[in-house]
Amino acid sequence: MNLDVLTQRSGEWLRGTGPEADIVISSRIRLARNLAEFPFVNRASDAVRAQIEDFLRERIEKLQGRRPLTYLRTSDLEPLDRQFLVERQLISREHAEDHGQCGVGVSSEENVSLMVNEEDHLRMQVLRSGMDLDAAWAEINEIDDLMEQEVAYAFDSQFGYLTACPTNVGTGIRVSVMLHLPALVATKEIQKVFQALQKIGLAVRGLYGEGSQAMGDFYQISNQVTLGKSEIDIMKSIKDVVAQILGYERRVRTALVKENRQALHDQVSRAFGILQNAQTISSEETMHLLSSVRMGVNLGLIDDVEIPTVNELFIQTQPAHLQKLRHQKLESAERNIARAAYIRQRLAENNPHTSA
Amino acid sequence: MKKCEHCSKPAVLHITELQDGSVEAHHLCESCAKEYLTQSSEPESVEVESSLSIDESDDSETAEAAPQEQPPCPNCGITFKEFRSLGRLGCAHDYSHFREELTRLIENIHSEVQHVGKVPKRQPDASRQQFDLIRLKLQLKEAIDEENYEKAAGLRDQIRQVELELRSSSPAT
């Protein structure tokens, strides 16, 4: 797989379709698995890590799933390329920073990724655009069954699937739904959501998972408990909560439009105007303004740009993406100029009404 | 990357503090975070998102008493104390070897101690042979480190033998 090809498009999970796609960016399910015959990754010497990687790579490459997978040995990639895969959510930040031999099998649509030698020997994830956990589960469950025919998983009848960290033991599942919640953030109602989630044991994370901050009003809601509840029950608790948050965000959006349509229209239009014209712009400001524009489009206040373009810009304006697009290393100040130029170009080509 | 709010180093720890119903976010570099966390009067109310949610203060008595008595895992060599400081176990056998201690910990984390849900279709319990393999591979590494090549050769033959047995006992696919 040529990573440069990927820069030109975005993963299928960003296409902005699927149920509730105005608020739900993506649904993701990850399973953590370990091989019974090897020590866990953190306890494995470089030589043993290499053995694990060879063993799993061979099996991933032969896997007869619905989608063919391309295997990349991430430890052989440049740091910039690894960062690029992180920005596309194909590998985790922990995986990108890992030492020792590791890799990932990805589908060409970028909605399946099987990470080898992350915290666990195997971390498999399926992504879907919009609210579509059932489809994600069906596919990851199938991949898990196929892998299981080839390898012996570490499993215990009391503790379930055994993981390097006891916080993941049992089902080894993490169900996450990424939400765009600009209205709840703007009205500070989001704090009530956090407190309610905390109480029922669900985690809230930013765009890039554990430890990352909420950028562009994106929040990932996911389960923390992995043992003592079935995969289906865990998914159900996430679905129930997401349905409530969606209703909440929509009510607040409607109220904002009703109470002060003009001010809201002004705010989202100004955000769009800055993005169309800025000559230098930071990643943080970009995320913030794109978030306003995204809400403006969903509320019918802006019709000069489409949601998939906005979704793509969130990812393509990230540091590693910009540098890949420009085929050169860029310092922060240079990136801000390149970012502004890229956004101007994308918004102009997307909008036939604008004269160049 | 965000900068630390106390100095100009990059922030690596993002702490969300919940107190009396209000939420406060802090972005700190490692050294400032250490200082922040040790200063904090109520450790229970601080949640470091990137770290394992084992509260050391929570059951200090059992945590202190257990590791001295418990020998290290015969397969991977990890002690329970080492696990507590690393937050990661060494091999699958640790779950059997430290079952009692882990059951307490797992109950704290998940409020349950029995798995429900998906079960592998074959080999529901990791077999004795697979644990043997972990132990033999560890011994092999030690033998090589000690330059005891005679011992290493013997261990390598044993590993091959166990691997062969494992292959033949697995159902044909």
From TrEMBL, chain A:
GO terms for molecular function: ATP binding; creatine kinase activity; protein arginine kinase activity. It is an enzyme of class 2 (transferase). Its EC number is 2.7.14.1. The keyword Nucleotide-binding applies. It catalyses: L-arginyl-[protein] + ATP = N(omega)-phospho-L-arginyl-[protein] + ADP + H(+). GO terms for biological process: phosphocreatine biosynthetic process. It holds the Pfam family ATP-gua_Ptrans. Keywords: ATP-binding, Kinase, Nucleotide-binding, Transferase. Residues 23-252 form the Phosphagen kinase C-terminal domain. Catalyzes the specific phosphorylation of arginine residues in proteins. Belongs to the ATP:guanido phosphotransferase family. This is Protein-arginine kinase. It comes from Planctopirus hydrillae. The gene is mcsB.
From TrEMBL, chain B:
One of its GO terms (molecular function) is copper ion binding. Signal peptide: none annotated. Residues 40-54 have a biased composition (Low complexity). Residues 130-165 form the UVR domain. Residues 40-71 are annotated as: Disordered. InterPro entries: UVR_dom, YacH. Pfam families: UVR. One of its GO terms (biological process) is stress response to cadmium ion. This is UVR domain-containing protein. It comes from Planctopirus hydrillae.
